[in-house]
Amino acid sequence: MKTLVAYFSATGTTKRIAEMVAKASKADLFEIKPETPYTPEDLNWQDDKSRTSVEMKDQPDFRPPMAESTPDISDYDRIYVGFPIWWYKAPTIVNTFFEGAEWKGKQVALFATSGSSGIDGAWESLNSSASGAVLVAAKRFSSSAFQDEVDTWVETM
Ligand SMILES: Cc1cc2nc3c(=O)[nH]c(=O)nc-3n(C[C@H](O)[C@H](O)[C@H](O)COP(=O)(O)O)c2cc1C
After folding, report:
1. Structural fold of domain 3-155
2. Whole-prediction pTM value?
3. 89 DSSP β-pair partners
4. Cβ(13) to ligand 1 under 6 A?
């Protein structure tokens, strides 16, 4: 099985987990990078006018551009997609990533980090961007998760 791990991480927490998922699943790794990186001010969820507040709440149909477009996924059987939870769902740049490829028949496994929110609401806002994909798993990890926990999750699939 050929596997890709794609992740978005604004402050490095999800990146650390993504590297562990890639190690556990012997996958290639792709970072979803925004064309315009998110600054600390952009990430201020207490400010209704911050970039992330506007993108997530006022403009959910806007797709933040990626610095590098979605790679060719045609050779991969399973794609893990990781992200931080923003406002109970996936950042809309993850929609940008999904909308750059053809997902019919692909196995998708989601993982996320968050302060405390679960990952259950994330697929609802992603699945219309990943038409035909088969969601095989979704797991939220705490920022302090260790390789063992990631290995166990990957092994159960
Ligand atoms: C704009 C924004 C919105 C967030 N919304 C939530 C949320 O709804 N629930 C939650 O538990 N954590 C929320 N968080 C916290 C992040 O999910 C958490 O810090 C995550 O581990 C960051 O991952 P990263 O370092 O890979 O970017 C939010 C963070 C930001 C910046």
Report:
1. Rossmann fold (3.40.50)
2. 0.98
3. 86
4. yes
